[in-house]
Amino acid sequence: MTELTRPARLAAGARVAVVAPSGPVVEERLQAGLDILRGWDLDPVAAPHVLATDGDLGYLAGSDAERAADLQRAWCDPSVSAVLCARGGYGAQRLVDLLDWDAMRAAGPKVFVGFSDATVLHEAFATRLGLATLYGPVAAGADFVKSTEAQEHLRATLFAPETVRTIPSRGAALLGGRATGVTVGGCLRLLATGVGTPHTRTGARGGLLLLEDVGEAPYSLDRSITQLLRSGWLDGVAGILLGSWDRCGPYERVRPMLLDRLGGLGVPVLEEFGFGHCEAALTMPLGVAAEVDADAGTLTLREPALR
Predict the structure, then answer these.
(1) Closest CA to 36 of 137, 167, 166, 108
(2) Contact 180, 67 (CB under 8 A)
(3) What pLDDT, in 10s, does the model give residues 89-140?
(4) What is the mean pLDDT of residues 190-199?
(5) Phi/psi at 63 (nearest 5 deg)?
């Protein structure tokens, strides 16, 4: 696990593109998100198909070709400094192989923000572009447009990343200790289903692994973690940060499973860190060198998330 290229921070007036690589977007929330970005003195531009819905597959925001074209066009536009996902859902797996990664690499490093289903894209940006990314709120997400805390943490990360080099956990140590490594991870299901597929890392060795999920019963979470264990994907991981487990059942049932499955790795584990599918979600950099101190409840970045 090596450090990845950090893109430049944003400045007032920067143009940012909002794309929908996964599920359909609620127009009212999209407009609210765009207004928030304008309030930050950014110039947000919605991609052409951001409000589309696939006619046959209503869980997709337009066809695979349309969603891929929106993302690639935004990334390759020299006037765009950042690309933000409008929402999660499902669909990024279907478009990731349609992108022209050579063209996107030639466009140079930019900021990419998204979470949940965007885990597939975070992995692809890491493997194909060598680029550090931000696992953070989506522009049309209900939790984002209603949460001042989520907005301010993302804003600070984008404009003044040196002010958020130490990110405090909202939880505590599941297993104590300290470790250094490069941040990696995202949504548990997407990491598990990505094992063995193109544009996905072969493992988290040397990494500080971020894990969270939504709407999965404890046995289903167990299955995904067990897949990562059995495949060897977790071999050599340095430390683990656990985010939210919204709608995954009472945490009193989830916690013993996490301890059972992860305790044998012998690494520091922080629980309920405060990222993912939760209110006031933190923005977590991926691909940057950092230290986790489970006893103190902190993740400290060696350098700011953005240059």
Answers:
(1) 137
(2) no
(3) 999 999 999 999 999 999 999 999 999 999 999 999 999 999 999 999 999 9
(4) 97
(5) -70, 165
- For strands 43-46 and 15-19, give the pairing: parallel
Residue 135 in tokens: 């696992």
Separation between Cα atoms, residue 58 and residue 63, nearest integer Å: 10
Partner residues linked to 129 by β-bridges: none
State pLDDT tens for residues 5-40: 999 999 999 999 999 999 999 999 999 999 999 999
The catalytic residue positions are 116, 212, 277
Per DSSP bridges, beta strands 80-85 and 166-168 are: unpaired
| Mean pLDDT, all residues of the chain | 97
- The amino acid that residue 265 corresponds to is L
Check if the beta carbon of residue 245 is closer than 8 Å to that of residue 218.
no
Phi, psi of 71 (to 5 degrees): -65, -45
Q: Tell me the pLDDT band of 244, cut-offs 50, 70 and 90.
A: very high
Phi and psi dihedrals of 104, rounded to 5?
A: -70, -35
Torsion angle of C-alpha atoms 246, 153, 211, 299, degrees rounded to 10 = -130
Phi and psi torsions of 156, nearest 5°? -65, -40
DSSP string, the chain: ----BPPPPP-TT-EEEEE-SSS---HHHHHHHHHHHHHTT-EEEE-TTTT---SS-TTSSS-HHHHHHHHHHHHH-TTEEEEEES--SS-HHHHGGGS-HHHHHHT---EEEE-GGGHHHHHHHHHHH-B-EEE---TT-HHHHT-HHHHHHHHHHHH-GGGGSEEE-SSEEEE--EEEEEEEEEEHHHHHHHTTSTTS-S--TTEEEEEEEES--HHHHHHHHHHHHHTTTTTT--EEEEEEEETSS-HHHHHHHHHHHHGGG-S-EEE--S-SSSTTPPPEEES-EEEEETTTTEEEESS-S--
